[in-house]
Amino acid sequence: MVQKKAARKTAGKAARPAKAPGKTARPSSAKPASRRSLPADRGLELAPKRIEELLRRLRAAYPNAECALLHRNPWELLVATILSAQCTDARVNMVTPELFRKFPTPAAFAQASLPAIEEEIRSTGFYHNKAKSISGAAKKIVGEFNGRVPQTMAELLIIPGAARKTANVVLGVAFGKAEGVVVDTHVLRLSHRLGLTRAEDPKKVEQDLMQIIPKDRWIAFSHELIHHGRQVCIARKPRCAECPLETLCNAPDKTWSSH
Ligand code: SF4
Questions:
Q1: Whose CA is nearest to atom 6 of ligand 1?
Q2: I need a labelling partner for 36 at 20 to 30 A (CA). Which of 55, 119, 135, 173 fits?
Q3: pTM
């Protein structure tokens, strides 16, 4: 459930964080952004107290945020994440039960023909490329990793279809390892709206986020932003009047503002 916004005016001091109910301690692993190394207009946006407050409100709003892709093991998560490109998680979740019934292991996918895989994943879009990626990933994992999804970023990045976003999802969700921050379309959009980055390239956005978000929040932070992007900070018409981050947000396309 999303919290209602605090009805507190900030009298034009746009980037000043709203006072939170109750004090929160800075996470021990926080890496505060240095104001001295930032342009003057970025100092307030990236001020450690503002980032802390954003993180606190996100956690309060989405305490149970987790990956929405159905899976029973790291391999199924890898396949589901490849299928989720340009497709909703709900659609992927409609396709994967039958897909994994027909091809229950990486070896079964490795032996399957491309048309057989394509037939099962057609409704997720871009199914020619996705089938190639899944088949290639299965062959690589069977041939070089003894049928098991590897657990490091370097190894995941040599698997067909697994760029950094997919690798971060698998590492974070399947193995609980924070080697980076998942930057999908929601994280990208919200990071811009919240002033957390000015980069456009997802790799640079990820680097920016890794600088300002404590490492022990990387995994949950992306889940929370994705939930917020789906439920409140939607692409076309963000629901700013009901947003728990509103007093901290200066996005130019806000639909309502208290300050
Ligand atoms: S743009 Fe609106 S909905 Fe999105 S974070 Fe800012 S206040 Fe919230």
A1: 249
A2: 55
A3: 0.82
